[in-house]
Amino acid sequence: MGFNLQGLLTVDREALALYERLLPGGSAWVVPVTGEGLPDAWVLPEPTHLADGLGDALALPADWFDEEADADWQAAAGVPDRPAPLSSLDLTDLRFASLFSLAAPAGVVYLGNTTFGGVLDTEYAAVCVAGRLRAASGIDHGEPGDKDSGTAFVLRDGAYAAVPHGSVSPIADCAALLDPRYRGAFLFDGYLPRSIRPDTPQPPGEAHPEPPKLDDDVVAEWSRFFPFLRD
Question: What domain range includes position 81?
């Protein structure tokens, strides 16, 4: 057993409404999480993974993001020009975090973890608040037994910077910006799901019933990057 997890963590239920707006029916696949001493929260499936896993059942709208406005979005969201050192954390991940954070006052964390047979592979996370990137970090643990092969990075002064391998805990560090109870917590022992990729066409829950409530000024500022918000 291991982890193959890519999704978005939120402590704000309103983010589920925006997820449903983006991917109608998709919020039925959101996983609620809870744990002693930790916030009640939700893990949203990475939308493209959910849509791909369900075939024709769900589809992202063609206008969910304006590719021609990508450079302007990166500037507005504070995303570095150079890509993250871990290719697992890419611009699509950050776009989703930026988007859903518009409906989540505390912010949204894009998170990823791959662990197989107890062997750590990669862990990475990025947190956006009000559409803007506030923190990011990641670890590539390298090959087992090769103590020099691991690498790690953090977002620092608007750029990604290399840091000592053991100095970061990416998901807990980023999640602490949502709620300080996450700081220093180990979230892989029953709190976070191991995977949220669909293995059945039957959703585990019910779709969020209410439309998102976004301020007009938020829609005006961010719909030039996410045109579907105007609908």
Answer: 2-230
Residues comprising the chain, all counted: 231
In this structure, how many other beta carbons lie within 10 angstroms of the beta carbon of residue 51?
18
Contacts of 206 (CB under 8 A, 6+ apart): 28
pLDDT digits (tens, 9 = 90+) for 153-174: 999 999 999 998 888 999 999 9
Give the number of domains in the chain.
1
Task: For residue 135, give the nearest of 180, 175, 187, 81 by alpha carbon.
Answer: 175
Amino acid at 110: Y
Whether 29 contacts 198, CB under 8 Å = yes
Contact 47, 96 (CB under 8 A): yes
Helix (H, G, I), strand (E, B) or coil at 77: helix
pTM of the model: 0.93
By three-state DSSP, how is residue 224 classified? Answer: coil
How many other C-beta atoms lie within 10 A of the C-beta of residue 218? 15
- 93: which 2 tokens? 């991940």
Determine how many CB atoms are found less than 10 A away from the CB of residue 90: 12
Whole-number Å distance between alpha carbons of 129 and 102? 7
CA distance 54 to 175: 28
Q: What element of type H or E holds 111?
A: strand 108-116
